């Protein structure tokens, strides 16, 4: 993927993905513990992060609903098996936007939940560092949630 930067040249973008597990089986409770961590990380980019619609549904994607208000989406889906949102922000340096996608989902045959965090931005050391900081913050929040 190429991102346009300022002039006529293109900057290559990159995506980093981490998959983590949380022993909690309640998608909404896990989401409530993890989304503030991602929101705080997005805020470190320098400008106010905007959010995409929330996507709430089932692991087979049947009956997934989207909307700007998470509570409204949760009211429309009985026993949600997945929730996702993407935060997008520009850095203080004015470079191309970076985004963080958080997805929490339950698979039918596993008791634990799968947590995915995906960071997309310009191919740079800053994007990789931002990904590593976000992944570490989420891992620490998961460790706290998993308990001893």
Any overview of this molecule?
The chain has 148 residues and is α+β, with helices and mostly antiparallel strands. The protein has a single domain, classed as Alpha-D-Glucose-1,6-Bisphosphate, Chain A, domain 4, CATH 3.30.530. The chain contains 3 helices and 8 strands, in the order ββαβββαβββα. The chain has helices spanning 27-43, 70-76, 125-146, and strands at residues 2-4, 10-22, 50-51, 54-57, 65-67, 82-89, 98-106, 113-122. Strands 1, 2, 3, 4, 5, 6, 7 and 8 form an 8-stranded antiparallel beta sheet that branches. Helix 1 packs antiparallel against helix 3. The termini are far apart.
List the helices and strands and how they pair.
Blueprint lengths: L1 E3 L5 E13 L4 H17 L6 E2 L2 E4 L7 E3 L2 H7 L5 E8 L8 E9 L6 E10 L2 H22 L2
Antiparallel strand pairs: 1-2, 2-8, 3-6, 4-5, 4-6, 6-7, 7-8
Helix pairs in contact: 1-3
Can you tell me the CATH class?
Alpha Beta
Number of strands: 8
- Whole-number total of structural domains: 1
Shape field: globular
- Given helix and strand content, the structural type is alpha+beta
State the separation between the terminal residues, measured CA to CA. 42 Å
The proportion of residues forming helix, as a percent range, comes to 25-40%
The fraction of residues in strands falls at: 35-45%
User: pLDDT average, as an integer?
Assistant: 83
- Would you identify the regions where 5 or more consecutive residues have pLDDT less than 50? 1-9
| Cα gyration radius (Å) | 16 Å
The number of helices is 3
Question: How is the CATH topology named?
Answer: Alpha-D-Glucose-1,6-Bisphosphate, Chain A, domain 4
Note the run of SSEs as H and E.
EEHEEEHEEEH
CATH architectural designation: 2-Layer Sandwich
Largest sheet: 8 strands, antiparallel
């Amino acid at each position: 993927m190429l991102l346009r930067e300022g002039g006529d040249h293109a900057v290559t973008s990159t995506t980093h993905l981490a998959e983590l597990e949380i022993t909690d089986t309640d998608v909404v409770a896990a989401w409530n513990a993890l989304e503030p961590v991602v929101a705080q990380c997005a805020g470190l980019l320098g400008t106010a992060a905007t959010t995409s619609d929330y996507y709430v549904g089932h692991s087979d994607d049947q009956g997934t609903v989207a909307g700007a208000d998470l509570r409204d989406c949760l009211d429309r889906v009985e026993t949600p098996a997945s929730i996702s949102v993407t935060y997008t922000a520009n850095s203080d340096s004015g470079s191309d936007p970076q985004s963080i996608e958080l997805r929490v989902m339950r698979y039918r045959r596993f008791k634990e939940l799968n947590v995915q965090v995906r960071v997309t931005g310009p191919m740079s050391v800053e994007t990789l560092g931002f990904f590593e900081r976000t992944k570490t913050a989420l891992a620490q929040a998961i460790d706290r949630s998993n308990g001893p």
